[in-house]
Design brief:
The protein is an alpha/beta fold. It is built from 22 helices and 6 strands. It has a domain of 94 residues. It comes from Dongia sedimenti.
Length: 470
């Protein structure tokens, strides 16, 4: 489409709103990118080190924390670049999602475009993932693009659309492999929507296959390559596994909507989950949207599938990002519909929008205040006392990186050396750190009392607690 035709189709007010949303999103992400890297980002730099050593197909490729395109970017800029530079790729990807959200809402009208662009620019969840050196900003962008392309492919099947979807699918997977969840939800929706339109099951399957075939063809060699790496290494390494439980699923799925809407922690999880249900009911009653069925698949069927399959680590909201993207687009449609119905509905929509904006602003302020956790004060205290510290392997990675980066020499002690070296401190990022800790090794027991703690806020990071030997 030429620039003149695009300008003709998009109202001038949408261009202005998009510029404001991009400016706001950029400012929030630059501020959010301040501070040192946290564990998962630092672990990505360890993967970069493996790449530099040529150990790609084994130790690096078959690791869940390897968000491949982000790792490649870190390789290009180098591990010693300033933190905002290391996070700049995610900043750009997060900003790119803003005009794509506007495009996704274009058929809804100006109010829908403004709502969509604003929420993808300034919602806490997108600011968080759009300001750290990981692949989730790219995943969000590619999920949005895939949704737009699937809609286009359902309305007007063309080879170019299917090819573009294939490129987006591969890029999304290389940003974060859980892109397969986004594609699965969209594929199921495409099959359903095609069947509803034609009433012919065979024809619907064929239409869905033609649309998604380039995506499957593009992903196949990547999956084979990763499968080979898993075979050679003997496993696909997941850094930490928490067994499935319904409580963890409730925590993770409700946490998604808390982060999207800024709902306080005091609100019970079950009550939070009423929000997507009420939204779907309102969409079904108010709108005649083709996305209603997508909402049912993404917001109801998907968590039910997780409940049946029972995978590990379901407590993390980031694994439900595809559901979050669909939810926000439906919410923007509802806002647009209310805005177009007259003054009374505009007041209702405005009040809800202000409440959501206030909740998100509160979350972002806490992110700016606490960041993703800061062990540097404790490290400086340990180094000034010229004492050793007991650390687990995970925390040693962070302390070693930050110590080298800031010139802080901290002597670490392995648990097996506890009796011989008798560390004066213990530093941990474990959650729920108690007042006292006791460690026992053959021949000795060491007790530590909590001395200080530095918290973090939100979806990414670690709290750090410093203990002193008694």
């Amino acid at each position: 489409m030429s620039g003149r035709r695009l300008a003709h189709r998009v109202p001038a007010m949408a261009w202005l709103a998009g510029g404001i949303a991009l400016s706001l999103g950029l400012a929030l992400r630059i501020r959010g990118a301040e501070g040192d890297l946290w564990l998962d980002e630092i672990w990505s730099l360890r993967l970069v080190a493996l790449l530099r050593e040529g150990r790609f197909l084994v130790e690096s490729l078959a690791v869940d924390n390897n968000h491949y395109l982000n790792t490649l970017f870190l390789l290009l800029v180098g591990p010693d670049a300033p933190a905002p530079v290391l996070r700049s790729f995610s900043i750009l990807l997060g900003l790119a999602a803003v005009p794509v959200a506007g495009t996704a809402m274009r058929r809804i009208g100006l109010s829908g475009m403004i709502a969509g662009m604003t929420v993808f620019a300034a919602a806490y969840l997108f600011v968080n993932y759009g300001s750290e050196a990981r692949g989730y900003a790219g995943l969000i962008l590619m999920t949005l693009l895939a949704l737009v392309l699937v809609e286009r492919g359902l309305e007007k099947p063309e080879r170019a659309t299917a090819t573009a979807l294939g490129i987006v699918a591969v890029a999304g997977f290389l940003f974060q492999p859980i892109m397969v969840l986004s594609l699965g939800l969209l594929g199921l929706w495409a099959l359903w929507a095609s069947w509803r339109a034609s009433g012919d099951v065979k024809r619907s399957v064929q239409a869905t296959w033609r649309l998604f075939m380039p995506a499957l063809a593009g992903l196949l060699p990547i999956v084979v390559l990763i499968g080979g790496a898993v075979f050679r290494s003997g496993t696909y390494l997941i850094a930490a596994k928490t067994p499935f439980s319904p409580a963890n699923l409730l925590q993770g799925y409700a946490g998604l909507f808390r982060a999207l809407l800024g709902i306080p922690d005091a609100v019970p999880d079950l009550l939070v989950l009423a929000v997507p249900l009420v939204t779907l009911i309102a969409v079904g009653m108010v709108l005649r949207s083709t996305r209603t069925s997508l909402g049912i698949i993404a917001l109801i069927l998907f968590p039910l599938m997780v409940l049946v399959v029972q995978p590990p680590n379901v407590q993390f909201p980031r694994y439900y990002l595809a559901s979050g993207v669909v939810f926000l687009l439906l919410l923007a449609e509802l806002f647009a519909a209310a805005w177009q119905r007259g003054l009374a509905w505009r007041v209702v929509a405005g009040v809800l929008a202000i409440a959501i904006a206030f909740g998100n602003a509160s979350e972002i302020v806490k992110l700016f205040r606490y960041g993703r956790g800061d062990p540097l004060p404790a490290m400086r205290q340990i180094a000034a006392a010229d004492q050793a510290v007991l650390l687990n392997v995970r925390d040693q990675v962070v302390v070693a990186y930050l110590g080298r980066r800031h010139g802080i020499g901290v002597t670490t002690v392995e648990p097996a050396e506890l009796c011989r070296k008798r560390p004066a401190f213990m530093l941990t990022s474990d959650e729920g750190a108690p007042e006292r800790l006791t460690f026992t090794q053959p021949g000795c027991t060491a007790a530590f009392r909590r001395e200080s703690a530095t918290p973090f806020w939100g979806l990414s990071g670690s709290s750090w607690t410093l203990y002193r030997a008694e």
